[in-house]
Write a structure and sequence with these properties.
single chain; about 500 residues; alpha+beta; Dipeptide-binding Protein, domain 1; D-Maltodextrin-Binding Protein, domain 2; Dipeptide-binding Protein, domain 3; 3 domains; ten-stranded mixed β-sheet; four-stranded antiparallel β-sheet; 16 helices; about 35% helix; about 25% strand
Length: about 500
């Protein structure tokens, strides 16, 4: 009996020893290829965070290729990423970021405070003018600590730097960019994100491969292929034939087809983008849009619920504001009712009993069916407008230069808060704003200096109320976007980041 016991204990010790001596299991290697049918042409400009235009679209790529100091993630809208943490001084003039020590770019170079400083100083996107007016200097404390020194207390700093509202906090490798230059970087970008560029056929597709040393976790998928497929029926056909795993923007009848296919799922995502009518000539006293009654008539002419049903299968909630209701400091505003009779009466009161020719309505591509429907509602009360189609880059360039005129079927899908949206689309200096209202500009400047949170919120809501009272825009709905997803996907990544339209985080997507 004792001999058997000694033998048993000896076996136990031997097995434990073998277990302890065995090498630890490494994370599973990335496997498989996921193919996307993307609704727009992928622009090389999106490869470089320095050029971020204040829109959400570039992050369809940047969440894969690059990483940010702070960014929206499943854990929250301002999740520490390349920075482990940050602090602000008591006087509100210094923000310090503590950077992670295990981050490497795709070429193996370590990420340091030098890269953070360089990326900010190089940034020239939509928020560059404002941020560089506010930031006095960026100093390096040590390789993994960096400080931003402001010229004066600016409560909005993290709202702009710590979100994709500007994209200023997305980091590129200093040494590599200095070596290849801006043009070289767009052709062969190097980032710190979960995927790296393997190949690119301009206007056709890009191929990304897993960055197995990504700091957060090794991606589960080996390769991602993004194909530009502007035609919706072609995207749907690719999905049905198994030639794509994810097809963006399967809206309207396309969405109904997806729902009928047992091999596919219709997945809604987003909600952060608001759509509205912008009246390009409203500052001109000779324009009908200068009259508040005309602008209000246009808003009352829209059946928002029907538009949501036709475009997004009813998923997009109508809104009375261009600022998402989920945003911090947003003023809740109910949408105008659909009232074409009242709209016609307002046109009579404004001096346009027979309506008028409003020229063109230009939508953000490729939302042409949406624009046709909106034009139909305006035409029903006498405001005649033809839909104008533009290539996406041309449209955005004209919008940025304030050259669109007439009516824009506009949207903003950027992260942030009420401040970042007001800055982009409402104040006179906004990157997309055509509005000139001295009272709004004054209130916005006042809130940017106000340290009392309650007083600041009151000022921001006064701005929003003035926009509503003057009917400066005709808000439509907050876009919830239908997408087709193959059931071959175990984790599509759609909806993991709240209110984000595209898949993300990319390191989480997985095939069955």
């Amino acid at each position: 009996m004792r001999a058997n016991r000694r033998c048993f204990l000896g076996c136990v010790v031997l097995v434990l020893g073998l277990v302890l001596m065995a090498p630890a299991r490494s994370p599973a290697a990335p496997q498989g290829t996921v193919i996307y049918a993307v609704h727009i042409t992928i622009a090389p400009a999106w490869f470089d965070p320095a050029d971020n235009p204040g829109q959400i679209t570039p992050f369809i790529i940047q969440y894969a290729l690059h990483d940010a100091v702070i960014k929206p993630m499943p854990a929250g809208m301002m999740t520490p990423s390349l920075a482990e943490s940050w602090t602000a001084s008591k006087d509100g003039r210094v923000y310090e970021f503590v950077l992670r020590k295990n981050v490497v770019f795709h070429n193996g170079d370590p990420m340091t405070a030098e890269d953070v400083k360089f990326s900010f100083e190089r940034y020239r996107g939509a928020g560059a003018k404002l941020m560089k007016e506010k930031v006095e200097a960026v100093t390096i404390v040590d390789p993994h600590r960096v400080r931003f020194h402001l010229k004066e207390p600016w409560p909005d700093f993290m709202g702009f730097y710590g979100s994709p509202a500007t994209g200023a906090g997305w980091i590129v490798p200093k040494k590599y960019v200095e070596k290849v230059g801006d043009d070289g970087f767009k052709k062969a970008p190097i980032g710190a994100g979960p995927f790296k560029l393997a190949s690119m056929t301009p206007g056709v597709e890009i191929v990304l491969e897993a960055h197995e040393k990504y700091w957060r976790k090794t991606p589960k998928v080996k390769r991602i292929v993004m194909k530009s497929v502007p035609e919706g029926s072609t995207r749907l056909a690719m999905l049905k034939r198994g030639e794509a795993h994810i097809a963006y923007k399967t809206d309207g009848p396309l969405g109904e087809e997806v729902k009928k296919d047992s091999n596919l799922d219709l997945v809604f995502s987003g909600g952060i983008a608001t759509w509205w009518l912008q009246f390009g000539d409203m500052n001109d006293p000779k324009s009908p849009w200068h009259n508040q009654k005309v602008r209000l008539a246009a808003s009352l002419a829209l059946d928002r619920k029907a538009l949501s049903e036709a475009e997004t299968l009813g998923a997009s909630p109508p809104t009375g504001s261009i600022i998402p209701r989920e945003f911090e400091w947003a003023l809740p505003v109910e949408p105008h009712p659909y009232d074409p009779k009242r709209a016609k009466q307002l046109l009579v009161e404004a001096g346009y009993p027979n309506g008028f020719d409003a020229g063109f309505i230009t939508p953000i591509p490729p939302y042409y069916s949406f624009a046709e429907a909106v034009a139909g509602y305006l035409g029903a009360i006498g405001i005649k407008a033809k839909v104008q189609k533009m290539e996406r880059a041309v449209m955005f360039d004209k919008r940025r230069k304030k050259e669109l005129g007439d009516i824009c079927l506009c949207a903003n899908g950027g992260f942030g808060n009420a401040v970042t949206r007001i800055d982009a689309d409402i104040v006179s200096t906004g990157v997309h704003s055509v509005l000139k209202d001295a009272e709004i500009d004054r209130l916005f400047a006042e809130q940017s200096r106000e340290s009392d949170p309650k007083k600041r919120e009151a000022l921001l809501k006064r701005i929003q109320q003035r926009v509503v009272d003057q009917a400066y825009f005709a808000p439509i709905y907050q876009l919830q976007w239908p997408n087709g997803v193959s059931k071959a996907m175990k984790v599509s990544g759609m909806g993991l980041i709240p209110t984000f339209y595209y898949t993300g985080p990319f390191e989480e997507i997985e095939l069955r």
